[in-house]
Design a protein that fits this description.
390 residues, alpha+beta, seven-stranded mixed sheet, 16 helices, 53% helix, 13% strand
Length: 390
């Protein structure tokens, strides 16, 4: 069978696939198409009404076919595109590649494979070709079964292509001031939102992004604090970690700090069990350089443990730090007698002992003096909260 006949069979198979198994896609693929590097396109609509108002995007298509004695498995490998074709594919923000296997002895039996070569993937392919001084690159296509949700699959592809096209300007505006963005359709709004999240996610993953540099500095500052903690900033950063799911995307050096921040916040809110569970996760990333920060948070996360004195004494904290944490434990558990024993005449020279003393005054209902001390501390220290019910 000649190549023209094989191409006709392959193209008709793809056209029939969309005709019979999709509602929102119009296939425009021809056997005699003279386009450079493309055989036609798939027009994607947001509904089964193929109108200008419903139109979303047009996906360039390449169709290849071959006669085979028996079908391949769920994937096949193809390597006949050259570097110039890959370049043209990239200029079009990606291309859909169909490969149709036709059984030689029974040409009505056909199997369709598909791969969308996105702009990002094509960039990787072209880099590979350049770095390896070759003109071709093998690609792997997966079986496209009629039962697949073709409308949803190709709507996603339409969105990928748009993300690399004309909406880059709107995404840039959105990142600066979302109130200035004017959308022409719900699809465009969804697209810009998706693109924004992708860009932000890259910022979260990139260790040297301005976002990660700022986050690292804030987290280090919060973890360097001892008894007096900037509770407002701690709550803010914890909320950001949770809301943005940063524990799944941050680079490891910031991820370690984020686990400690989360545990410290949970301990501050007296959710000790969850704080300890978070520290257990942190142990997978533990390094000696964070030993001091880890031990402080570990002590804070065990304020409900009767054996905390042993934990404090075995820590590598300085003697002055150990004294403050032990005194804080006595206060947290209303052991005022032991706290008094630790309190020295010159203790009030130090801000954190002033803070602990103010907590003591709150517990004995000397609110006026306690608030005066806390107010004075707030003039020179990070914002602190009065963690006692008046």
């Amino acid at each position: 069978m000649n190549n023209v006949k094989i191409e006709e069979m392959a193209v008709s198979t793809v056209n029939e696939l969309f005709l019979n198994h999709s509602n929102n896609i119009s296939s425009h693929i021809k056997t005699d198409d003279k386009g450079i590097s493309f055989d036609g396109n798939l027009n994607v609509y947001k509904s089964d009404q193929f109108t200008k108002e419903s139109y979303l995007n047009s996906i360039p298509i390449q169709v290849k076919g071959s006669l085979v004695n028996h079908f391949s498995g769920q994937t096949i490998k193809y390597y006949e595109f050259d570097k110039n074709e890959f370049k043209n594919f990239q200029y079009e923000d990606g291309v859909g590649v169909f490969y149709v296997e036709i059984i030689k002895e029974s040409t009505q039996n056909r199997k369709v494979f598909f791969k969308f070569l996105s702009a990002e993937l094509l960039e990787e392919i072209r880099k590979y070709i350049k770095d390896n001084d070759t003109s071709q690159r093998l690609i792997e296509l997966e079986e496209l079964v009629p039962q697949a949700n073709l409308d949803e699959k190709f709507r996603e592809i339409a969105m990928q292509r748009k993300l690399n096209g004309l909406l880059k300007v709107k995404i840039d505006v959105f990142l600066k001031d979302s109130s200035k963005v004017i959308y022409t359709s719900e699809f465009e709004e969804e697209l810009v939102t998706r693109g924004t999240k992708d860009i932000e996610k890259y910022e979260y993953k990139n260790l040297n992004s301005q976002y990660n540099i700022n986050l690292r500095n804030v987290m280090k500052g919060l973890l360097s604090q001892d008894i007096i903690v900037d509770s407002f900033n701690l709550a803010r950063v914890y909320g950001e970690i949770e809301k943005l799911n940063l524990l799944s995307v941050l680079p490891e050096s910031n991820l370690k700090l984020a686990y400690l921040i989360k545990a410290r916040y949970l301990a501050m809110t007296r959710n000790f069990e969850s704080a300890r569970a978070t520290l257990q996760e942190f142990r997978n990333y533990y390094t000696d350089e964070l030993q001091n920060e880890y031990e402080k948070v570990l002590i804070e996360s065990n304020q409900d443990d009767n054996n905390i004195e042993t934990l404090i004494s075995k820590s590598f904290l300085s003697d002055s730090e150990k004294e403050k944490y032990l005194a804080n434990y006595f206060l947290e558990n209303d052991d005022l007698a032991n706290f008094y024993e630790m309190f020295k005449d010159d203790s009030l020279k130090y801000a954190e002992w002033q803070y602990l003393y103010a907590q003591l005054l709150l517990r004995v209902e000397n609110y006026k003096e306690a608030i005066e001390i806390l107010y004075e501390l707030n003039q020179n220290q990070p914002m602190i909260s009065i963690e006692y019910d008046l």
